[in-house]
Structure to design on (294 residues):
């Protein structure tokens, strides 16, 4: 799907500061007792069971959508997989897109299964030119099917492939360029992978196409010293906040959100994390404005 002028305009009109929509926060979200500008909904939570349908979960999502912008974020596209794209899944997501009318749809730059079996994990790929071509062609098919912009997200990883011909950030850049899609930059994932694979997170930030970064993710992780795990079960760490400040300097227009998926606290606590992001964004903008004036 070629990007129209309207699509490019919509993607570059930032939604501002949002949160991942979680069931435990739904009442507070609908009551409006917060300062959150938009919400990201996990696609698979609203597809329902085969032959049953989505049920009340979709009704609740549509209630949120009446009040706030929503984006859809999936975990099952398996864009890097070798199995054919799942036509039934694509059709189900297209129906959801038509109902929710999200600003955009995102999924992960990974594979999730093989031979029809889902691992329920976001698995990394070898960073080769052949894989770039494979993934880019599949992204183009998805965008044509959904008639909606697709953002791909960098994943955290814990293994590397000896077949890789380039760095992760070079791979991400080549996929985005070849597919004609946009990027959801997970800042926490950059940090997690940099620790696990001993590369400089700053090098990652310097190497990606910032004009394609539409959204950023922030989340907490578990640091075990020799292994860092993307757990999404605690506040964002200082090292990730520092990296976010550098990222937002390069893409101030990007919509920013906080993920918290396990041991989920009350909405006000998660919202406080989002307000930290908002404060850092404002500080970076003020500093950059002052530098320009000088």
């Amino acid at each position: 799907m070629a990007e129209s002028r309207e699509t490019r305009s919509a993607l570059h009109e930032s939604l501002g500061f949002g949160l991942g929509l979680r069931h435990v926060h739904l009442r507070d979200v609908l009551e409006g007792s917060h300062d959150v500008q938009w919400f990201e909904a996990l696609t698979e939570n609203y597809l329902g069971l085969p032959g049953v349908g989505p049920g009340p979960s979709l009704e609740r999502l549509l209630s949120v959508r009446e009040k706030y912008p929503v984006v859809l974020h999936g975990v099952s596209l398996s864009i890097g997989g070798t199995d054919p794209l799942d036509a039934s899944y694509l059709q189900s997501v297209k129906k959801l897109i038509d109902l929710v009318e999200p600003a955009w749809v995102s999924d992960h730059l990974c594979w999730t299964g093989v031979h029809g079996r889902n691992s329920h994990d976001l698995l990394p790929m070898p960073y080769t030119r052949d894989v770039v071509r494979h993934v880019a062609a599949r992204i183009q098919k998805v965008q044509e099917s959904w008639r909606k912009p697709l953002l791909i997200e960098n994943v955290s990883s814990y293994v590397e492939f000896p077949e890789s011909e380039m760095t992760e950030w070079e791979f991400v850049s080549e996929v985005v360029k070849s597919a004609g899609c946009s990027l959801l930059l997970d800042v926490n994932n950059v940090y997690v992978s940099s620790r696990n694979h001993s590369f400089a997170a700053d090098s990652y930030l310097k190497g990606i196409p910032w004009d394609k970064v539409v959204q950023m993710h922030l989340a907490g992780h578990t640091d075990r010293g020799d292994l860092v795990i993307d757990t999404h079960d605690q506040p964002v760490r200082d090292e990730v906040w520092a990296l976010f400040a550098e990222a937002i300097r390069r893409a101030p227009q990007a919509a920013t959100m906080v993920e918290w998926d396990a041991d989920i606290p009350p909405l006000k606590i998660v919202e406080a994390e989002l307000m930290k992001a908002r404060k850092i964004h404002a500080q970076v903008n003020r500093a950059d404005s002052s530098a320009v004036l000088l």
